[in-house]
Amino acid sequence: MIEVRNLTKRYGDVTAIHDVTFDVNKGEILGFLGPNAAGKTTTMRVLTCFMPATAGTARVAGYDVFQQSLEVRRRVGYLPENAPLYMDMRVKPYLEFVAKIKGVDPRERDKRVRRVMGICAIEHVSDHIIGHLSKGYRQRVGLAQALVHDPPVLIFDEPTNGLDPKQIIEVRELIKSLAGDHTIILSSHILPEVSMTCQRVVIINKGTVVAMDTPANLNTKLKGSQTIILQVKGPVKDVLTALKAVDGVVEVKTKGSERDSVWRYDVESHPGQDIREHLAAKVVQNNWGLMELTTVGMSLEEIFLQLTTEEEGVQA
Ligand SMILES: Nc1ncnc2c1ncn2[C@@H]1O[C@H](COP(=O)(O)OP(=O)(O)O)[C@@H](O)[C@H]1O
Ligand SMILES: [Mg+2]
User: Fold this and answer.
1) How far does the centroid of ligand 2 lie from the alpha carbon of residue 40, in Å?
2) Average pLDDT over every residue of 255-264
3) What is d(CA 276, CA 234) in angstroms, rounded to the nearest whole number?
C-alpha cells in the first residue's frame, strides 16, 4: 500500500533522511520509531505531499507522491505533529469545513462528519469551541479531520504526544480500531507505544533505517542476542544449511553480492551464548574458506537507550 524507496531529504546542508526504504502492507499498522530528530516528521511530510524529497521515490496506493500528489492526498489522512485546528471554531463546523476543502461531496458531508465524530467519540462536544477542549479531545478532533474524507491510508505523527496517561490509552485504542480497514503509519519516540499498537516497526535513527521487524523480534534483539557476520567461500545453499544447524543460531541471512563465491552471512544467535567457535568449526569441517568472522556491536541497543522505554502511569 505504501512503498518508500531510497528516500533522501536534505535541508541545505542538513541531511534529514538518507536512503530510507520500507513498505507498509494493506491493513497494517506500522510503527515508525526513533529518537528526536531521527527524521520521522520529514519522512511523513514527504509521504503526505507536504514537500518533495531530494532523491528517491514513494508511492501511496499505487500513486507517486511527487507526480500524482492530488491522487495521493485524496487517499491519505494526515495528523501532523501539531494538529491543524482552528481554536476558535466549533467542532462540527470545523469538520464540515475540512470536509469541504478535502472535496467531500456536499450531499455526503453531513453524513461523513457525523460518522467520524462517532468513530472518534466526540459527538457530545460537537458544538464546543475547539480551543476550550482538553488536549485529549483536541487530538480526537485532529484524528477526525484526518478521517473525514474516508482515506484508506492514515499517517499519524506522534499522535499521543503531550496527552495524559488516560488519554494516551484512549487514543491508542482508537487508532488500533482503525487498522484493518486502513493502512496506518504511526510515528513515536516511545518504545512501548509501538510495541503495543503496531504489527511491525521500522526504527530510524539519524535519518537512516536501522531495523525493521515485528515488536516481538525487536524485543529479542533488545535483550542482547548477538549478530555475527561471516564471509564464507563456498556453495551458498550448503553454507546456509550448515550454519542454521549450529546450536544457538536463531536466524541466518545471506547478503547478496557474490564475489569469487564469497558470500556474507548474518547469523543471529540466542542471547548470552557465544557461538563463534562453533560457527568457525562448522565452516572449517566442510573445507570452506572462512574469510571473516566478526561480531556486530549492538548499535540497536544504543539507539534503544535514547528511546523512551517506560511510561509512567500508562497501563495497557
Ligand atoms: N525545515 C527544516 N530546516 C532545516 N532542518 C530541518 C528542518 N526540518 C527538520 N530539520 C532537521 O532534520 C532532522 C530530522 O528532523 P525531523 O524529521 O523533524 O525528525 P523527528 O520528527 O524524528 O524528530 C533534524 O536534524 C532537524 O533538525
Ligand atoms: Mg517529529
Assistant:
1) 5
2) 75
3) 18
